[in-house]
């Protein structure tokens, strides 16, 4: 016999919801799902062990050059290191000047379309010197220090006029793209604004033009909320693209992540830690990605009224198929309200 929660889920009709932030449609299809509480992931594979890990303390000589560390004293043990990526997607060496490359010009036109020279920065934030320590194991203040290290690096990078956007992201688990199991996040600084970012800006502008309000400043319905702190709120978005996708949003309007101050960093660190622990407990420590969705570095003042940064967490619980790739329209088997309820009720061990 099906449980009441299973029967209720299966009896709901499919819905197609419009995501006002990313301007895309999401199909909610409960018939494709088990009960929301039955979602469990296989434990992520560990791509490397502590015995062969260049990110562990004592193996610094195996890494690409260091950019800075926390604390900054090179004679003391470090807690956080920001280093260059050994296999960068873009080259920091193409442009030696802060206003461009050696010739001062980065863009040209190719026969098949526009080409932009691959200048940019690809850095790694090593979140702990200890291999077995994950981000969720750190104290809220320590998670805040990791976020502040990301902020500091963005502030350094934004001095380069050619850099338009910095994406901070974390891959946890091999199937989520992590090549190293030692806890770390990354920054990729681009000389272009990626199309997904442009689409989000255009979508939030459309909402602002119609309502005069920022769509992320709007009061989030109680049935979508998970946790609330002094400065942040965690929710499952109304039109979540993925099952158990969670956003952590500043409660007061803020466009640039790198404007985060120390107090808010600790507050965010505590909520991020809690959220990751809830995901781990409820979903069996799934592979996940998180992305800090922020404003372009050179966003103009009028855009700042409707660009609201947030931290997006996506557990890797379902694959992407041909329909999603072909249409850009995703199928989510778990209604947002059901996912939020499950996450609200997770008991996290002290």
Task: Describe the protein in words.
One of its GO terms (biological process) is galactose metabolic process. The chain has a single domain, classed as HIT-like (HIT family, subunit A, 2-Layer Sandwich), CATH 3.30.428. The chain is 24% helix and 22% strand. Strands 3-4-7-9-8-13-14-12-11-10 form a 10-stranded antiparallel beta sheet. The longest helix has 22 residues. The N terminus is likely disordered.
**Helix segment tally:** 7
- Average residue-wise pLDDT: 88
Which CATH architecture is right? 2-Layer Sandwich
CATH top level label: Alpha Beta
- The strand line-up of the biggest sheet is 3-4-7-9-8-13-14-12-11-10
Main sheet makeup: 10 strands, antiparallel
State the distance separating the first and last CA atoms: 35 Å
* Unreliable runs: 1-8, 99-104
- Helical residue percent? 10-25%
**CATH homologous superfamily designation:** HIT-like
Structural class: alpha+beta
Overall geometric form? globular
Count of the separate structural domains:
1
**CATH topology, which one?**
HIT family, subunit A
List keywords for this structure.
3-stranded mixed sheet, 7 helices, 350 residues, 15 strands, alpha+beta, disordered N terminus, 10-stranded antiparallel sheet, HIT family, subunit A
Summary?
This protein has 350 residues and is an alpha+beta fold. Helices cover 24% and strands 22% of the residues.
């Amino acid at each position: 016999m099906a449980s009441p929660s299973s029967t209720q889920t299966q009896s709901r009709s499919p819905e197609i919801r419009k995501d006002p932030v990313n301007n895309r449609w999401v199909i909610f299809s409960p018939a494709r799902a088990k009960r929301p509480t039955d979602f469990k992931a296989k434990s992520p594979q560990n791509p490397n062990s502590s015995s062969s890990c260049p990110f562990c303390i004592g193996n610094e000589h195996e890494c690409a050059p260091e950019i800075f560390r926390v604390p900054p004293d090179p004679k003391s043990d470090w807690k956080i290191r920001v280093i260059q990526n050994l296999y960068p997607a873009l080259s920091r060496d193409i442009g030696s000047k802060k206003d461009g490359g050696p010739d001062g010009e980065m863009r040209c036109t190719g026969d098949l379309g526009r080409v932009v020279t691959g200048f940019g920065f690809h850095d790694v934030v090593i979140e702990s010197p200890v291999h077995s320590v994950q981000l969720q194991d750190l104290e809220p203040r320590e998670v805040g220090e990791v976020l502040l290290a990301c902020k500091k690096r963005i502030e350094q990078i934004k001095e380069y006029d050619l850099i338009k956007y910095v994406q901070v992201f974390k891959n946890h688990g091999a199937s989520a793209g992590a090549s190293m199991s030692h806890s770390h996040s990354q920054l990729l600084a681009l000389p272009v604004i990626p199309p997904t970012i442009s689409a989000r800006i255009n979508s939030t502008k459309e909402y602002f033009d119609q309502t005069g309000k920022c769509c992320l400043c709007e009061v989030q319905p109680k049935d979508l909320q998970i946790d609330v702190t002094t400065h942040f709120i965690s929710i499952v978005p109304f039109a979540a693209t993925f099952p158990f996708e969670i956003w952590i949003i500043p409660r007061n309007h803020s466009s640039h992540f790198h404007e985060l101050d120390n107090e808010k960093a600790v507050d965010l660190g505590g909520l991020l830690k809690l959220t990751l622990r809830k995901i781990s407990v409820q979903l069996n420590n799934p592979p996940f990605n998180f992305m800090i969705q922020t404003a372009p570095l050179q966003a103009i003042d009028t855009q700042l009224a409707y660009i609201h940064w947030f931290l997006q967490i996506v557990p890797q619980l379902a694959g992407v198929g041909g329909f999603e790739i072909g249409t850009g329209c995703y199928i989510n088997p778990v209604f947002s309200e059901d996912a939020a309820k499950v996450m609200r009720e997770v008991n996290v061990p002290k």
